[in-house]
């Protein structure tokens, strides 16, 4: 699948589900202490980066995790491929900044971020595109800054024809945490910590399996 094809498919799907997605997942983090723990550790590492730089939530969707980072004392903003998701995020969190964009080519300066959050936002990315995306993360991160990547753990491709109450056409890649850690390392982002947990909440309904969280850092 070409880059343009998968980006178009992802944008169309999330434009379609944006409102329903926000309503369904608005309070999802409340029941996931391990997820909050990883976000808390990521936020602390980002706050330790000198210069008062912001953190980018890439693939931010309706902005719920961006807002969580803001409550943790991180100066966070969101970028998403879907204009409808960005519209929902701006309505839901008017005090935060959200813009349309693609993590394949970020409109951000080199070394301008104290952290990058990719909260399930690489799960639709074909494997051959991941190295370029991780290289882009490395480019925009300041020395010592962390990246947190969350995704479904496994080694298979799922195609979804329906999601969040809507018909869609969307590929979802479950990935081996060791393989993702290796790709991050190849991009100059050494994995600092990892968590793999069993499914919880709506993940049980959707049979989403194990969930993986990797924290990596750019060298100082």
From TrEMBL:
A Pfam family this chain is assigned to: Methyltransf_25
InterPro entries from the UniProt entry: Methyltransf_25 (IPR041698), Methyltransf_Superfamily (IPR050508), SAM-dependent_MTases_sf (IPR029063)
Signal peptide as annotated in the record: none
BP term (GO), one: methylation
Keyword Membrane: no
Domain spans labelled Methyltransferase: 55-144
Family matches, as Gene3D superfamilies: Vaccinia Virus protein VP39
GO molecular function annotations of the record: methyltransferase activity
Source organism, top-level taxon: Bacteria
Descriptive protein name: Methyltransferase domain-containing protein
Keywords of this entry: Methyltransferase, Transferase
